[in-house]
């Protein structure tokens, strides 16, 4: 009976090593992504997922990858057709402009506007509405020429990812949806294999340090090997009739599609771009552009009846009227620009173009999609796995001694 207990205890060593490998790798993957915010006593006692903790650096890397090498703001802006954009928003813009005209005139020239018959007001509306396509087209062209001053894509992406740590997690989890489960599973297999020499050594020489050391090596090696298998070798290598390449790099076409879709649907889309244009650091430049074209339009409208209009409004109210019109058109821009979202998304073609260009990257460049931002902290995961493995080895030693 004693021999059976000893044999079972001995055979349990590789099984426990396999379990240790699985647990340490499982925890390593979880620790990459969770918790989203720091838990504990900062800055040392506690933990935050490596990726959420470095989301600003990662966001900047994403911007450099996507816009530094693959797409440019000028290229995206150049895809917008002023006529198509005008057609998309024209009906709603006409409604908004009518309301703005009423409010501006009632504020700056109430008596003149009240005295104007309905036919006269309709003539004003029609004159402005006929001019809308021209004004919008000129504004779009000026936007395209000055896009770098008005739209900061880096600010857009960084702001989105910093404010939404779950989004940066989604990018990595979905891009590596096969690799991360492999890391967990491989811990079991490699843990079992590494447990075999530990079992043999324990059978021959039962020193107290063998099991803790074996656990430490299992925890360390399973994490290290799993990460290496995902990213190495970078280029396909023929070995004994088989082609070997890092798992993530081998799936470049598939990952490119997933990654590009996330970038398009969650980050660089017409809704987010519009929000950044209106509320980001370049909004003042957009306001100046609107002011330039609205003032020019008003001057053309007024020129038709300049003497009558000047007498009815006065120079002070005239400038006030132009300022109000510009401000209201800018403030109400959300109400008509949202009608351009569908057209703009189709015109920008962010997802398809980004996917195609990601697929064309060399393996060394493509690795930059998933790895560089947290690569410098991989040692934390490996060391944590080693310490957990050593702790499991100590527990296993204690149980064997009791037996």
From TrEMBL:
What family does the entry list? Answer: Belongs to the UPF0754 family.
Give the species this sequence originates from.
Alteromonas alba
Q: Is the keyword Transcription regulation assigned to this protein?
A: no
Name one cellular component (GO) term.
endomembrane system
Question: What residue ranges are annotated as transmembrane?
Answer: 6-28, 182-203, 209-231, 381-401
Protein name per Swiss-Prot or TrEMBL: DUF445 domain-containing protein
Q: What keywords does the record list, in alphabetical order? A: Membrane, Transmembrane, Transmembrane helix
A matching Pfam family = DUF445
Query: Mostly located where?
Result: membrane
Q: Where in the cell is it found?
A: Endomembrane system
